[in-house]
Amino acid sequence: MTIRLSSTKTIDAAEATALTTHRTSAGTDHADVVSATTELGQSERVAVTGLQMETLNNEQSTAIGGSGTDEFVPHAIIFHVEDVGAGAAANGDMQVTVGITPGGTEILGATALTNLKDLNDRYVVLITGLTDAIAGDSTLYVKNTTADTTAGAGHLCDAYILGETFVSGT
Amino acid sequence: MTVRFSTTKNIDTAEATALTTHRTSPGTDHSNVVANTTELAPSLRVKVAGLAMDSVNEVSQAIGGSASDQFVPVKVIAHLEAVGGAGATGDMQITIGTSAGGTQIKGITPLTNLKDLNDHMEIGVAGLTDSIAADSTIYFKATTKDTTAGAGHLVDLYVVGEMFASGT
User: Fold this and answer.
1) B43–A114 CB contact, under 8 Å
2) How confident is the model at residue B11 (pLDDT cuts 50, 70, 90)?
3) Contacts with A9 from chain B: Cβ below 8 Å
4) The model's pTM
């Protein structure tokens, strides 16, 4: 297959400046577009997977994967039953913490996930109030501080931590 | 100043397929890029527009996603998009659901003081959630009308949430 592109266009000085600064149109550069368009760029969803619901003190972690010069500010967490074991059913009385150190509670202190027990159940926890500065290259830890009292082996819970990324100091 | 573009390129079958499916490179299509880039795409904002404040009424909007995906609302933002004759007092109450008159997303909730043009009210959606297929419709109902709003007072609702492929 052959594709041929052939075009000649005369541009003015403003368009030339826009091209050289990667602007999408004269007077509007890409950085402006990103900062003015809330749907793009800054939101992030970090998945921490595989927390065992039946095991006290089980802990899972995931690196945020950003830069050390950026800050991550979590605003919500969605917990999700990703798998159920072959054994007994869960009853939904697990409690968890979420932090930036092993066993840490910097993001969320001990929180009951009441009735989170069936496959694909989801539980939303909102994060409000004063937050620690969390570097964008940190690791997030989710810990089972109260095991589900009836869950058989194989019950696994995901945590999706939603947040915003900011350049440090902004 | 004059800029000229002139080029001819022979491409192979893989490249042709990539072009026709909007792939950024052979073997990596756009959906993969989105799925692997946490900054993009999982967030969704569904707009349900035109709820009349001066009557008990209901409006709805399809999420517009795939039935194999799940939509998980995290917050809603109510917005006073238009004002009619008399001023509103801001005492309307609403419900949000996935069926007509439903409360699956939010039970009866007052929008206290939402009364002036472009007022916004944010409401968090927390706790255990129903599974909402991404091809569902969201229903927004005024269960208690504003006691003084004139005809033409309208409220938008923005339901902000996350999309998940089913089972993830």
Assistant:
1) no
2) low
3) 2-5
4) 0.74
